[in-house]
Amino acid sequence: MIRDASRALCEQFGIQLDFRHTEDLDKVSQWLARESQEFDGVIVNPVGYSRATTVPIENYRAAIQTIAHLNKPVIEVHINNIFHHGAESTQPLREDGGDMGFICGFGLNSYLAAIRAIGLRLQVHHRDHNRRINKVDKVFILNGPNLNLLGRREPEIYGRLTLEDLARRCAEVGVQRGLDVEFRQTNHEGELVDWIQEAIDVAKGIIVNAAAYTHTSVAIHDALRANPRPKIELHISNPHLREAFRQFSYVSPVVDGIVAGLGTSGYALSLQLMADLIDS
Ligand code: DQA
Hints:
With 280 residues, this protein is an alpha/beta fold. The chain has helices spanning 2-13, 25-35, 55-69, 108-121, 155-158, 163-177, 189-202, 218-226, 265-279; strands at residues 42-44, 74-78, 100-104, 137-143, 179-185, 205-209, 231-235, 257-260. The chain has two domains: 2-121, Rossmann fold (3-Layer(aba) Sandwich); 137-279, Dehydroquinase, class II (Rossmann fold), CATH 3.40.50.
């Protein structure tokens, strides 16, 4: 099922898919290490590695980092939201590396979103999702502190697009997917809480980049928990690969899925994932 759907999407992108599965933890590292020159990107679901503690993790981490340092996209995917089950973090990829994305909690769509992200990185073009013409659902995209500085805040981490650029891009995707996107930013924790509460009655779903409050705010955790709609946690960078204080999220356990480390393209991808969550 995942293999077939992945293959179909890759065909749309003109990406050649090599889909593999093994129960042998070290085999993945061997594939990655030996064949790193031969592919343009990797999507990996490291089931089991999150719990492994011995040599395989080291080999795996080394192999992944080699690929990331070759500047090829690497995206870790999980079918479930691993933070619902008390996972501490994405242990295997946690150390400093190149550019690594993280998507979890969307079932099969975790894989499809990763393929889309790689397609965007490789700049291959594809036919987009079907339009939903007869239906318009409101979705909130809520941004937390310092994201108003996007474009000039640490561009090596957060990129060069401004928040206005992202709002515009999200509005375009919204039109394609029948979503009326309400895009907001605030530097104030309480205002985010107010908006998450407001969304209970007016929005079909919430995408939230709570920025630094992700790592500190019980109030945002509680507000999200009180909102029964589909929820996505979004980050431009992958906090799991950064300072220790970013590796805990109060948001992760109370959302359906997480998109991180895909740069600013994560906004449009999250919106596509939200459209699918609302439709499902
Ligand atoms: C961020 C990551 C957070 O750790 C940080 O505090 C931010 C932005 C991101 O989008 O990568 O402000 O949420």
